[in-house]
Automatic annotation (TrEMBL):
SUPFAM superfamilies to which the protein is assigned, alphabetical: TT1751-like (SSF103247)
Keyword Lipoprotein: yes
Domain DUF302 residue range list: 73-123
Name of the protein this chain belongs to: Putative lipoprotein
Record key words, sorted: Lipoprotein
UniProt source species: Methylomonas methanica (strain DSM 25384 / MC09)
PROSITE patterns with a match to the protein in the record: PROKAR_LIPOPROTEIN
Length: 156
């Protein structure tokens, strides 16, 4: 009985000596978004978004026209909803060499949609306060670019 009690009492100590998994805590904080609104026509916003993405040396990897597809399937009058995915492979490589766990932030994504008579343009930002200082520095350089892309698309 004493031996069993000693074994159970020592389990927390043994567990604390076990190797900890190696990963960066990139998910401990909530995802931050950057969003602006504009009264500019929706099609102009999409065109400007494509220009801004190219000017920042990214390539569009996907464009989902969710609102249009829903309208095409019979929901006349359904509002506009689009997602545009984009990437720069050099930056992607740099980010993934810093930590492979950053794959969840790829590709970059901007959503546009109509709400209350305006067009909203929104992107998620990379976390700048993770447990990985190298990733934080990378994010601090990337986030202003993402904001500039959104701002350019919204400019009147």
């Amino acid at each position: 009985m004493l031996r069993t009690a000693a074994i159970f009492a020592s389990l927390p100590l043994i567990a604390s000596c076990a190797a900890q998994p190696e990963y960066d805590n990139l998910t401990s904080e909530r995802v931050n978004y950057y969003q602006v609104e504009t009264t500019k026509p929706y099609d102009e916003v999409l065109a400007e978004l494509e220009i801004a993405i190219a000017e920042h040396n990214f390539r569009i990897t996907g464009h989902s026209r969710v609102g249009k597809v829903i309208r095409d399937r019979g929901a006349a009058g359904f509002p506009e909803y689009d997602t545009v995915q984009f990437c720069n492979l050099t930056l992607a490589r740099t980010m993934l060499e810093i930590t492979p766990h950053a794959i969840g932030y790829m590709p970059c994504n901007v959503v546009t949609y109509q709400f209350a008579g305006k067009t909203r343009i929104r992107t998620h930002l990379l976390p700048e306060h993770s447990d990985n200082p190298d990733f934080n520095r990378f994010a601090a350089q990337m986030n202003p670019q993402l904001k500039q892309i959104v701002d350019f698309a919204a400019e009147q």
